[in-house]
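Hi Y.,

Following your request, here is the sequence exactly as I used it, all 293 residues.
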Amino acid sequence: MRFSRFGGPEVLELVDLIDPHAGQGQVRIAVRAAGVNTSDWKKRQGLMDEELPQTLGYEAAGIVDEIGDGVTGVAVGDRVFGFSDDGIAQAELAVLTHFAPVPKSLGFSDAAALPVALETATRALDQLGFAATLLVNGASGSVGSAVVQLAVARGSRVIGTASPANHEYLRSLGAEPVVYGERLVDRVRALGPVDRALDVAGGGVLPELIELTGSADHVVTIADFAGAQQCGVRFSRGDSGRALHVLDEIGALIETGGFQVPAVQSFALADVAAAHRLGERGGVRGKIVLVTG
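Below is the corresponding structure, written out as C-alpha cells. Let me know if you'd prefer a different format.
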C-alpha cells in the first residue's frame, strides 16, 4: 500500500515493489493481517512526513517465511506478530524487526491489532511508574483499553473517562468509568484520590489532570504535545525508548484471561480507502485491520 501524493483516501494505491528480505535479527513474514492506525491518515494527509512516495503499516501478523542472521527461537512456518520498523507492513510480505509468537488463542487479525496499542500503553505506564489509582483520559479506545487492562494487571485501581455508551465496556475491563467534560475534577474526586494520570485522548484536560494528581510529574500524555509543553507534562513518544518487552509478555496475560483483545473490524488490503474513511470518522471501538486473503 503506497501513496505518491498527499490527499484523501483516493490517493492510496496498491503497487508492486521488490520483495523485501530479512536482515540481521529480522524475520520476513507472509502477511495475513496488518493494523491501521491514526498515523496512517495523518501521513496520507501530509501532516507527518514530507517525502513522497510513502508506504504504510507498522504492525502485522503472519507466517515466517525467511529468517535473518542471528535469529534464534523461531522457524519458518511459525505464526508471529510484531513491528515493521520500515513501515511497509500493509503488503503481502513484510520484514519484522521486533516480534513474538502469536498467542495460541488468537487469529492473525486479533494479533495484528495489538503491537502499536500495547507498546504505546506499556511505554506510558512504565514512564508513569506504579499508580495506586490511575486516571485514564480516553479509556475506551484501542490504546486506552490496553492501558486499563495492563494497569489493572499491575495492581492499580483504574478510573477511566469515556462516553456513557462505553461505561459498561470499561467496567468489563476492570475500570471505574466517569464521563469526560465539564466538572471532571469533581466527578473524579467523588471516587477518591488519584496519584497518576495518563492522557490518551487529548482535549485540553492536562490542567485538570495535574490538579487531580497534585503534580505535572504525575501526568503523562500521548495525545497533546502542545499542552504538554505548556503544562510541563511529559509527552510520551517512541523515540524516547520503546516498551518492546510487552510483545513477549502479553501472551501469558491473554491466555490466563487477564487481557481482552479489542474488537476488530477487517477490510481487504484492496479496500484500504474504506478503512481510512471509517477510521477518520471516529467513534470506532477497537481496531481496524487489513487482511491479505
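The longest helix spans residues 115-128.

Thanks again,
Q.
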